[in-house]
Amino acid sequence: MFEHDALGVAQQVSTGSLPPPPIVQRIVDEAHARYTGLGEGTVADYIPELAEADPAAFGLSVVGADGALHEAGETGIAFSIQSISKAFVFALVCDEIGHAAVHERVGVNNTGLPFNSLIAMELNDGSPMNPMVNAGAIATTALIPAASSDERWERVRQGLSRFAARELTVDEVVYRSETATNHRNRAIGKLLQSYGRLDPDPLETVDVYTRQCALSVTAHDLAVMGATLADGGVNPITGEQVVSSEVCRDTLTVLASCGMYERSGEWLFEIGLPAKSGVSGGVVAISPGKGGIGAYSPLLDAAGNSVRGQRVCAHLSRSLGLNLFASARGGASGSEESHE
Known about the structure:
By secondary structure, the chain is α+β, with helices and mostly antiparallel strands. 43% of the residues lie in helices and 10% in strands. It contains 13 helices and nine strands. It has helices at 21-35, 85-97, 99-106, 119-123, 134-142, 149-164, 172-179, 183-194, 202-213, 219-230, 245-258, 264-270, 307-320; strands at 42-43, 59-64, 69-73, 79-80, 216-217, 275-277, 282-287, 291-296, 299-300. The strands form three sheets. Strands 3-2-8-7-6 form a five-stranded antiparallel β-sheet. The chain has a two-stranded antiparallel sheet with strand order 1-9. Helix 1 (21-35) runs antiparallel to helix 13.
């Protein structure tokens, strides 16, 4: 267990800036055009309503930390946020109760197993392991301070709305569809309770979690939410400090190691950005200090990650110089030179 900021040393940050707006827009257009015709993957069908998504739908949005907007395709199509909500609820909880308390209850290590695995919990004495799998996300939602499940839900909805810079609402059709089929999540809730990892009623907690996953967003919303994490918790549209910069750091760290499920290592190796996906086809990726990427395409790979979403994020990471692990000899920046 590491002591958090134990030395009391003033923390420095290493960020940067995006290339000039015309260059960013050109590259966003190029990325979208390049993968529009890609037909790989399948639409999720284990939640019946998600199976109705248009496989051709594809939107890409980039919002800079300064609020600059660059978009291509169908960025206004509404879809349910699904597992992407995990990242932002985790941030809200860390902001409310602190880094150490969340770490102790939820954990931050990758399971290496599918997102809805019960085996991972059983092998680790009931620990959810990390907040980006279902067990950890349900445990995280339970940590939102509230006197009732209704209050907890409203605090979640309001918190994610502040990230998105608009009032988010539930897609009731998706919510009802998920409620009718979320037997495994209910089992996870009961298992968490049996290990003493869940204080509120497990079924009520799972219902709040189901509602948060059914919140309706767009690719544009995801980019704004990602840009908020990129800019130290300040929403670039509203100027509101949604969470602290320390919470952003913690959230992006967990996303880098766990955000893309069992493919997280491969994602980080190839793309080098903290990111989170959802089975409805959304992807959010964050470049600290620079901005957020929001993508929507419902065609998924076997791990439940958007195929087009992954490809455009890789394209943007390389072309805009977003990879966290990229460096140039002598500290020189070559990212803008490559766009001349």
